[in-house]
Amino acid sequence: MFESLFLFINRGIWGMSLDRLPLWKRLSLRLLRILFLSAEKFREDKCKLRASALTFYSLLSLVPVAAMLFGIAKGFGMDAVLKALFLEKFSDHREIIELIISFADKLLLNTAGEMIAGIGVAMLIWTVIMVLSNIEMSFNDIWEIKKSRSIFRKFSDYLSIILICPLLVIMSSSLTVYIATNLKAASDRIDLIKGSFLIFLIIKAMPYIMIWLMFTFIYIFMPNTRIKRTSALAGGLIAGTLFQVLQGVYIVFQLALSKYNIIYGSFSALPLFMIWLHMSWLIVLFGAEIAYAHQYSAYLDFGLRGKNISYSFRKLLMLLVMNLTAKNLSEGRAPLSEDGISRKLGMPRQLLKNILNTLTDAGLLAEIPCKNSPRSCFIPATDIGVLKISNVIDALEKQGDADIAIPHNETYEKLSKCMDGLRKSMKKSSSNMLLKDI
User: Fold this and answer.
1) Are 365 and 378 in contact (CB under 8 A)?
2) Distance set, CA 391 to CA 7, 13, 354, 386 (Å)
């Protein structure tokens, strides 16, 4: 039974063509693929370790970030509103939030002097940028992006978040309260919709909608690449829902552990808050994995992870990639990225990634920056006017060390000559065509 289930997970759901299935089966199969890919990649990307690191950075930056937010809100005369909103939204962590607000106020007070005001503000901004930079780094690793934002883009993008987020939080919260209040008032006045399940559902769903939108925004904005809106929304829905569930579980645990207040006093809130923070980062990273799997589920193959592909088939796949890049260059088209090659050939991304690395190391492909994208593109590293099948195979076979000291006896010399003869025959063969002409 378990063997059949394992076979189904590894090969069954990946061997079916989605185009030939009914809509409900297609959606169900794609959902299974996304979930399995997300879970596997969550493990491969060491998201538990990343969540621990982000928890540490978050704890160090809570006071500076809060001070920055309150300082900006104070400039608009809305600091009291923001503090009240934080206490309301994080009522489950009231003791911790009150401590953070107190420390943030002291930090703002200490940086208010004329002599150290500039240095203090600069340090606050730098702390926030470093925290957001570490968050971006984790997202970039999940999305397999090698290049982070430049320091100037980090400063401009992150500063935009710092300036806009406090206002958006206040406005969205006020809008939520306004809509919920008016819907409730309308249902009380109008008998037709009084006690309506739809109105009840909308009011109850408002917190979920806001958290879904927040997570969706994070998944669109934080990685240094273009994310499909639908993929970000898929990650936002899953992560936002899990986050709301975590809030409920946290309340239950808080009530269950309230007896420890006698021993630890208000300090008992701290370890529970740290656990909640760590779990929150796990959810954020899992949502990012969901978004990644949703965007690339058509080009990923869970079953190919660790599969032993034959050398002959591997050579054929490498020739396919070289043929595509050579023809693309000869026709004057823009260089293709890894995603572009994967879509054109219908090749799973993790298999293609390995092939591209091999071809690049062999000196057959060159990796160059893509236009208007942080991703890399690939072009042939040699003249496509003379690039034949034999050139690719010869370069692949000669890749690596060939100077290991072993006795060159008579058999060694004969076999070496035989191999040279076979290579010469391959070069003279009528099947040894220019890759761009195939």
Assistant:
1) yes
2) 39, 38, 20, 9
Question: Side chain identity at 41, as an amino acid letter?
Answer: K
Contact 356, 379 (CB under 8 A): no
Spatial CA neighbour of 303 closest among 2, 5, 3, 12: 12
Nearest to 170 by CA among 72, 76, 78: 78
CATH number of the structural domain 308-437: 1.10.10.10
- Helix axis angle, 151-189 relative to 114-142, nearest 10°? 80
- Kindly state the tokens that stand for 223: 């990685």
pLDDT in tens, 319-354: 899 899 888 888 888 888 888 888 888 777 778 888
Query: DSSP characters for 331-356?
Result: TTPPPEEHHHHHHHHT--HHHHHHHH
Domain boundaries, the chain: 13-296, 308-437
Element (H, E) at 380: strand 376-380
**Alpha-carbon distance 243 to 233, whole Å?**
15
Sequential DSSP letters for 258-285: GGGHHHHGGGGHHHHHHHHHHHHHHHHH
Residue in 225, 231, 232, 227 with CA at minimum distance from that of residue 376: 225
Q: From the CB of residue 403, how many other CB atoms can be counted at a distance below 10 Å? A: 4
Full-model pTM: 0.70
Question: How large is the greatest C-alpha to C-alpha distance in the chain, in angstroms?
Answer: 102
Q: Please, which residues bridge with residue 52 across strands?
A: none
Give the Cα separation of 240 and 253 in Å (integer). Answer: 20
CA end-to-end distance (rounded Å), the chain: 47
Separation between Cα atoms, residue 343 and residue 48, nearest integer Å: 31
The answer to whether 290 touches 143, Cβ cutoff 8 Å, is: no
Q: Find out whether 67 and 124 touch, Cβ atoms under 8 Å.
A: yes
- At 297, the amino acid letter reads S
Sheet holding 336-337, edge to edge: 336-337, 376-380, 365-369
pLDDT tens for each residue of 13-55: 555 555 666 677 777 777 888 888 888 889 888 899 999 988 8
Residue type, 26: R
Residue 20's Cβ-count burial label (10 Å; 0-12, 13-18, 19+) is exposed
The region that residue 308 occupies, defined by phi over 0 for left and psi between -120 and 50 for alpha, beta otherwise, is beta
3-state secondary structure of 372: coil
Q: Which amino acid is at 282?
A: L
